[in-house]
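Revision sheet: structure tokens.
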Amino acid sequence: MPLISVILGILILLILVSKLRWNIFIALLITSFIVGSINGMNLTDILHSVLKGIGDTMGQIVLIIVFGAMLGKLIEESGAAHTITYWFISIFGEKRLPVALMLTGFAIGLPMVYNASFLVLIPLVYTFAATTRFPLIYLGIPLCATLSVAHGYLPPHPAPTAVAAMMHANVNLTLLYGIIIGIPAILLGGPFLARFYKNMIVLPPKELFTPREFTKTELPKIGISLLTVLIPIILMVTGAIFKIAGNPQSKSGNFFLFISDPNFALFFAVMVGIYTLGTKRGKSMDQVMKSLTGSVGSVALIILIIAAGGAFKQMLLDSGVGSYIEQKAHVMNISPLILAWGTAALLRLALGSATVATITAAGMMIPVVSGTGISPELVVLATGSGSLMFSHFNDTGFWMFKEYFNLTIKQTFMTWTVMECIVSTVGLLGVLTLNWLL
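Predicted:
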């Protein structure tokens, strides 16, 4: 019955989201109540589980998501993304423009959610394709591969951050391992794959080609732009390295743990950005604060979805489904890393949303990985990379890529879906390799 309840719950979730077009947040809450009811929980206990799951999840990730959105808005409106792109191009030259866009995607994509960073950078891809005569897809694939890996693998992005909290994984170590695994995934799914599309000629849709123009005097300097963008990453990676090589119990260790906490690292970056990309650029404090306030609205739905995912996770634990899945997983003798990746991949195929697939799969995997000795950070990465697999019609990213690159359905499968499958598969291989080495 426990396993049947999960299967039935996921089927209901699929129907509510894909067929009836319900909001994912509401659909996840309904699914949580259904799973609890099938497993014999009374309504009061179900409600308490839902509230506990939401509270535990939100308490650990809501500030990270909000500060990430604020930093992203500062980067977008100041023109810092343009500055960083032009700087990389000046270093690598036009012949290596895909590499420059890949590195730009890495720098900009780390603090910004996927949709925001895609919409900020796509006008630059249009502009460079028009001025350099490089095919649009040849430039777009490296950028989107990088943004996708950041979205699926790396804190402080919402899904990996939330799963790290669920798994009690160290967020900074997750980021460090994710960067190590993400590099080959980006290279293979980006510049290497893009070489096969040099002869795919498509033009950007005229109605979407509205790049925002900045004069040279309007753009911030490269040093300030890079520093502001990379502050949270520098602090978090420093904390991860110190955790491995230093003494966390010392005074210096306590200091490094504090400044590398993602909540503080992103808050500090926002405080710096308010000055470097805001008031120093001539904006009034009222203008900056109004912009930051508006940025929170862009991630409100993401916060609610993750909250509902936390409720579903708690329901699986409190209803006894988690322990049942744990027993079956031990009997099957499958690596929890492969199981986490496969579960997330199947949910992505069924539900479309990588975020929902990650959160839902994590809730099912928590009891499976407990007591196995496997690094929880690697479980986070296995789940996140699995959530990028099998992107198709029910994924908004699929349609964004199709429309903004003016592709046919067949071409979108040949480019976007193939790229997503590559970065997902390489992610799994990287996780298994790291697990073997560690």
